[in-house]
Amino acid sequence: MDKPAVLLNPEFIRQVSFDSASPSGLSSVFHRFDHPGEYVVSFVRDEQIVQRAALTVRKVEPTDHELPSQVEFDLALLGRPTSEEVCCPADPRLADEFGSRFSVRAGGYASFTTSRPRGAYLIRAEQVGEGEKCRPFRSDHLESIDLFAVTLIRPGSYSVANLVGGAQGRIRVAYPVVGEKAYRPPPPITIECTGAGFFPASTDLAPAQGIVYKFGTPSRIKIQLEEPDDGGASGQARAPSSTRTRSRS
What's the helix, strand, coil split of the chain in %, to 5? Predict the structure, then answer.
């Protein structure tokens, strides 16, 4: 069976505000699940659970290819059975209670987003049942085993803030150039969130170039367009400026 198509709402192409606590559209949060066990993933709005799903994390041998190393939770699709859902949780209580059930190998990642507008929400993942318990995951408090990936489409200048640690940064997305060859964005750049702030604090991006945030300190990332770039007064496309990003060795 072919994988169901996910149609991105056109509203997200014009998205100018991003929050790692509530990833949507062209942004996703990734959490690594290291501890085998049964988990309940909850999508919460105004302290009320709007959707839940079951996740089984299993320890497997390196040569065991039965389980995926990554699963995707899309709030817009939860509750609909898909070929990507691996049946069934080891805990029968979860199998009875949840319509959406997923499995991943220990050390693998789960990604969280919504492909259709759902308003602000929070993601939680909590281990249930017996066995060694790990710290619950919360999307408004990202840590070292988490990632936040985002692609900024609208050209312009963006402010970046860590709402937990207070760090401030800037991102500039260049206006696209109309050329003879088809444009391909460069690979994503990495920004590190540390106790001292963002590294680098100021970043220039080529059009549609992605960003991956890594965390050395508890974080919640808020990105907001401050100054749109519509190509200047002449309305002509400008070449992107040189990228000032660096990578820490």
Answer: 5, 40, 55
